[in-house]
Specification:
Blueprint: H1 7-33, H2 41-44, H3 47-57, E1 60-62, H4 67-82, E2 97-100, E3 106-122, E4 147-151, E5 155-165, E6 169-179, E7 187-196, E8 199-205, E9 230-240, E10 245-252, E11 265-267, E12 274-283, E13 288-303, E14 308-326, E15 329-339, E16 356-357, E17 365-366, E18 369-382, E19 385-397, E20 407-422, E21 425-438, E22 443-456
Parallel strand pairs: 1-2
Antiparallel strand pairs: 2-3, 3-4, 3-5, 3-22, 5-6, 6-7, 7-8, 8-9, 9-10, 10-12, 11-13, 12-13, 13-14, 14-15, 15-18, 16-17, 18-19, 19-20, 20-21, 21-22
């Protein structure tokens, strides 16, 4: 009788094939482009760089001094703002008005972004605004096969301070709050951090996330195979060797998601900070890079049967890249694997998968394996008109296959078109397709058309 391979064996085969393919693709891209001249005229005229230049020039300066002095000083500050390693494609653009000090070494701006998304689901719908395959209903609900909705999720207000002095060098203070809480209308803090030189402290994007390698989507959730989170953290990041190498490490306040039943197990308070780090090589004046990231964390729970507290080490690693193949064409890729990091992922964060019950061993929990893949591409027809494609998968690998309605994997696909009517006003249209498969074998699908308009000021 032929033995059916278990989930761990299947995972090892799948991940090995995917990792090899990723390595071949990335090494090919690296070999083809790492040797390009940093002074390539074609690169400097790439549409995405022109687009950012248009955003910078759309900022108005209020202050004393000559126009050239004001523009030179603010240009340097805004250039760092838009080319930040952790700037997400959906983050607000710099404030429309910036107040500049007399000596041109301090600038303050208050701005906001009004973002409205309307979406129509058919052939199965997702009951949240973000298109996350985890939330696709199984079995299909005949009362919600179609759905029409709109909300202001992503609308935000923020304040940014740019400065320079002899002690801190270049520094930034940023606070941002938006409407993305309950029912997408509650107002909540999104970011609040101080960045001075190589150091960042505050509520900011986790060091484990590679925002530049994530394909741009109209959908607020983004591809389901990415790792994304905002944590209170202290981060050190340094670039060296002619701006070709970057390393970073951070201690981050933990927030675990543990599947404890309250009868045999109970989650303990988090008390050990998560540690995240990455090493990155970049070329094409920073427009292309390849990065290896790592995450290490401690997950604690109490065995109520043995009356003992237990600690389990969680970990994750991620290989990611963005490559400018042509001035108007970019490729994106992410492959990640880990145990006990599910709350960092887009899809599995919808449940409690950092630690789960060990089958046949009451009172014991373990960290299951989760794997994510993302592939994307963008093409700029002009600096103000561009299109993206994103394909993604999230997979869950427990030690034994549960025979219930448990999430096994989700698939995500997006195709969109963005148009910057002005550097401050953007519209977008996107088609989304998703699929969820459970361990029981049941499947669910969803399709969505999303339209977006955004005004940044």
């Amino acid at each position: 009788m032929k033995k059916t391979p278990d989930s761990v064996t299947v995972f090892k085969k799948r991940f090995s094939r995917s990792l090899c393919l990723s390595a071949i693709v990335l090494s090919g891209c690296f070999g083809a482009f790492a040797g390009e001249s940093e002074n390539d005229t074609v690169l400097k005229l790439s549409p995405d760089r022109i687009r950012i230049q248009n955003m910078i020039e759309s900022t108005h300066i209020i202050g004393e001094g000559s126009e050239n002095q004001k523009k030179d000083s603010l240009y340097r500050m805004l250039n760092n703002y838009y080319y930040d390693q952790f700037r997400h494609s959906q983050d607000p653009r710099a404030p429309y008005f910036m107040f500049l000090s007399k000596n041109a070494n301090l600038a303050l701006g208050m701005g906001g972004v009004i973002r409205m998304r309307g979406y129509f689901d058919w052939n199965g719908s997702i009951p949240i605004s973000g298109f996350s395959p985890y939330y696709i209903p199984i079995p299909k609900d005949p009362t919600s096969e179609k759905s029409l909705a709109a909300n202001p999720s992503g609308t935000a207000f923020f304040m940014t301070l740019f400065g320079q002095n002899s002690i801190f060098g270049d520094y930034v203070g940023h606070i941002e709050a938006g409407f993305s809480g309950y029912n997408n209308r509650d107002f909540k803090l999104k970011k609040a951090y101080i960045q001075a030189g190589d150091w960042t402290a505050g509520y900011a994007t986790t060091t484990f996330e590679d925002t530049k390698a994530e394909p741009t989507t109209v959908d607020g959730a983004g591809a389901n195979g990415i790792n994304t989170r905002t944590n209170v953290l202290v981060r050190y990041m340094h670039t060296f060797k002619g701006n070709h190498w970057t390393v970073a490490g951070s201690l981050e306040i933990p927030s675990s998601s543990i599947d404890a039943d309250g009868v045999t197990t109970k989650a303990c308070a988090d008390y050990v900070p998560d540690f995240a780090a990455f090493g990155q090589f970049q070329w094409n004046e920073g427009m292309s890079h390849i990065r290896l990231s790592g995450l290490l964390r401690v997950l604690s729970y109490r065995d109520l049967l043995k009356e003992q507290n237990k600690n389990i080490v969680g970990w994750a690693t991620q290989l990611s890249a963005v490559v400018k193949v042509l001035p108007q064409f970019n490729l994106y890729g992410i492959a990640s694997v880990g145990q006990g990091h599910a709350s960092y992922t887009t899809d599995l964060a919808g449940g409690s998968f950092d630690l789960v019950a060990k089958e046949g061993s009451p009172g014991e929990l373990y960290a299951p394996t989760a794997v994510g893949y993302v592939f994307g591409a963008s093409y700029y027809f002009t600096p103000s008109l561009y299109s993206n494609i994103a394909l993604s998968e999230q997979r869950y690998y427990p030690r034994s296959n549960p025979d219930n309605a448990q999430y096994k994997y989700g698939l995500y696909g997006a195709f969109n078109l963005f148009w910057d009517i002005t550097p401050r006003f953007e519209v977008g249209l996107e088609y989304l397709a998703g699929k969820r498969v459970d361990f029981s074998g049941e499947k669910g699908n969803a399709n969505r058309i999303t339209a977006m308009m955004m005004l940044s000021f």
